[in-house]
Amino acid sequence: MDKRLILIVIMIFIFIALLSTYSNINENYCNSDEECIPAQCCHPTSCTNIRNKPNCSDIFCTQVCEGPIDCGAGSCKCVNNKCQVVPKL
User: Fold this and answer.
1) I want to staple 71 with a disulfide (CB 3.0 to 4.6 A). Which of 15, 17, 29, 65 is the partner?
2) What is the DSSP string of 10-68?
3) CA dist., res. 21 & res. 49, Å (int)
4) Is 67 in contact with 43 (CB distance < 8 Å)?
5) How far apart are the first and last CA of the chain?
C-alpha cells in the first residue's frame, strides 16, 4: 500500500476518535440550569444537556417513584458547567 494512503487512513481514524471524545465530553456541558434535563424518559438517574433530549413520545412510564429525580426528589441543575442531579433538601 502507498505510504500516503496509510497516513490518510490513520489521520481519519484519529479525527473520528477526537470527534467522538469531543461529543462525549460536551453532552453534559451547560451554562445555565435551563439547559439541563433528565437524561432518561422514565425514572431518570442522570441529567444531560437539552440538545441530547431523549425521544419519549412512544414511552409509557410507571407511576412508581424511583431514582433521584422522580416525584420531586431532585432536579437537573448546571453545576460547574455540567448538568447534574441535585437532590431537593
Assistant:
1) 65
2) HHHHHHHHHHHHHHHHHTTB-SSGGGEEESSSSS---EEEGGG----TT----S---TT
3) 16
4) yes
5) 64
Alpha-carbon dihedral sign for residues 70, 73, 79, 84: negative
pLDDT along the chain (89 residues), means of 10: 75 66 68 96 94 92 89 94 93
d(CA 89, CA 77): 14
Domain membership of residue 48 as a residue range:
3-87
Task: Give the total residue count for the chain.
Answer: 89
Q: Can you give the pLDDT at residue 77?
A: 97
Contact 36, 83 (CB under 8 A): yes
Q: In this predicted structure, what is the pLDDT of residue 27? A: 78
Helix (H) or strand (E) holding 71: none
Number of structural domains (the chain) is 1
